Amino acid sequence: xxxxxxxxxxxxxxxxxxxxxxxxxxxxxxxxxxxxxxxxxxxxxxxxxxxxxxxxxxxxxxxxxxxxxxxxxxxxxxxxxxxxxxxxxxxxxxxxxxxxxxxxxxxxxxxxxxxxxxxxxxxxxxxxxxxxxxxxxxxxxxxxxxxxxxxxxxxxxxxxxxxxxxxxxxxxxxxxxxxxxxxxxxxxxxxxxxxxxxxxxxxxxxxxxxxxxxxxxxxxxxxxxxxxxxxxxxxxxxxxxxxxxxxxxxxxxxxxxxxxxxxxxxxxxxxxxxxxxxxxxxxxxxxxxxxxxxxxxxxxxxxxxxxxxxxxxxxxxxxxxxxxxxxxxxxxxxxxxxxxxxxxxxxxxxxxxxxxxxxxxxxxxxxxxxxxxxxxxxxxxxxxxxxxxxxxxxxxxxxxxxxxxxxxxxxxxxxxxxxxxxxxxxxxxxxxxxxxxxxxxxxxxxxxxxxxxxxxxxxxxxxxxxxxxxxxxxxxx
Length: 477
Known about the structure:
single chain; mainly beta
């Protein structure tokens, strides 16, 4: 059979074997890594695969999951790292960090190596912030100390976050508050908090920023740094955005700083994304209402007012899709919707529902209609407790999958995870994860999909619980 004929035949097949053969035929034209991901995706959604629990652990201390090519679990408040070993049905202990007090926060740095000559800077690593003003970077596989920095005294540093992911990160102090003696003496602190900006690899200090109320106003209550932008939150509900580079290079604050964008919103919750650029806010004193506004003139898009779901007393979560496609998620306790921004004509942007992508509940969940033999209409109430509850949503970027985890009261011993195609919204597979008998559906739960694994991390009864599930072929022993 000619190679061209074999390729044509393989295009009509979706099996794992066909994918492996296609990878060999197309090795010179297509990235083997991308073809490998397609093979893995076909394996996951195949009817011949099933979910198997390979490990479960409990701890009174925090448990966190770190993604990547192979998933890692951090125990004991980030100090002990385990690697999930798949079919070995266990967790392989990688390392335990030395005892230096409490770890306040961590960041994980893991990027593909594209042939860089300086491999030491490309090593996967975990950055830890210790209570004793120590910032350390350890190898993510061995726990070997790579670099360490002593932070300046005078501020209590407690948080790590990315400014530009895998490039620069931020060390943030806690909010400064006057002591009882200072309050009695009428002394006010002008510096609200302190930021330290670092390059990640090699780890190198770049800039320090003391956020001063004299510069940004006496109503300032909080601040954040992300994507080279400085976000300032004020007690009157305003969020103001400045250029981080301009602020750090400004030597005379009295000259004033240019505000890139400002808006007033409830709880300072501001989401930015979409094409063209838009933002999502909740107007002040309008809980349960979400407005999609053009970032240039703050004009609301057509159909840009999204309302809280009628099936839940909790607030919905509305945010831009993390894949940077510009789509919008609206997640409530019982329902998932997705929207997109479309331009029907120049100067007009409309919010449009994507009907194929939803986890929907009955159209009238609080009551249903039935009819007697004589034709009389009877209304019957339906308990909301009988409806599925969405407990978590996760996006697997490399496999282009979205996992929606639901709890159903009629099956209290399982969590149902539905896999959707991220592009089309088609339902691809449903997996039932077996949970312990004492599992509490009203605790805090995260379901993470990472390659061929699903990880359920729960917090209830004052403990953290983790369960690792592997997608395996039914025919394999």
